Amino acid sequence: MRPPSWRFTALLVVTIVVAAAVVGGQDAGLSATPAASPAELEALDASQVVLGRQVYLQNCASCHGARAQGAPNWQRPDIRSDLPPPPHDDTGHTWRHGDAELASIIRNGLRDVFNKTPELTMPPFKDRLSDEEITAVIAYVKSLWSPAHRRYQEEQNRRPPMPMATPGRNQ
Ligand code: HEC
User: Ligand 1: which residue has its CA nearest to atom 23?
Assistant: First the structure.
């Protein structure tokens, strides 16, 4: 018997990653602290974090919470069967995305593929925030994570982006 082709293996890997991403959206169990890795963490730029906090409070806190705690019952679809805004601290899953994916979500908005309404429940900010402000808000969100979550997210920066329901990629 021939060994499975690399295409099959690649498909399998993508399937597992997508399944994990989907389950991650529904299940808090996967938000448990990731295993620490020995990689060194770069210190965050303090002025970026300060600017990012302002950007966050003005643009994001109304949905994601003043302390980035997310909407109440954020893991369950709301009355319209859409996923509510998740937290951005360790209890959410923002730290599972690399920097480029986070910037793309903030620029272009997002809707979960299983949402019943067609609109972007996470609004696009590309006309409201500069690249500098988007980088800063990501730095602020990073400042909320434990070192283990930060290391995990740093590792995502070295991987190819996950397929996601952002405009331009699936529309
Ligand atoms: C009008 C409400 C609203 C505002 C304002 C908002 N978001 Fe969101 N955001 C959402 C919703 C709802 C989701 C979940 C979308 C989904 O998965 O269906 C989301 C998801 C996200 C995600 C993806 C998290 C993950 O792990 O999948 C990121 C990152 C994010 N928001 C960042 C931000 C930032 C940064 C701001 C401010 C610049 C912001 N959001 C403002 C509603 C909002």
Answer: 94
Q: State the amino acid at position 141 in one-letter form.
A: V
Residue 8, C-beta contacts closer than 8 angstroms, at least 6 positions apart:
none
Give residue-wise pLDDT tens across range 109-155.
Answer: 999 988 999 999 999 999 999 999 999 999 999 999 999 999 999 99
Domains of the chain: 42-158 (1.10.760.10)
How far is the centre of ligand 1, averaged over its atoms, from the C-alpha of 64 (Å)?
Answer: 7
**Prediction pTM value:** 0.78
The residues of the chain scoring below 70 in pLDDT are 1-39, 161-171
Q: How far is CA 103 from CA 40, 55, 121, 134, in A?
A: 23, 14, 16, 6
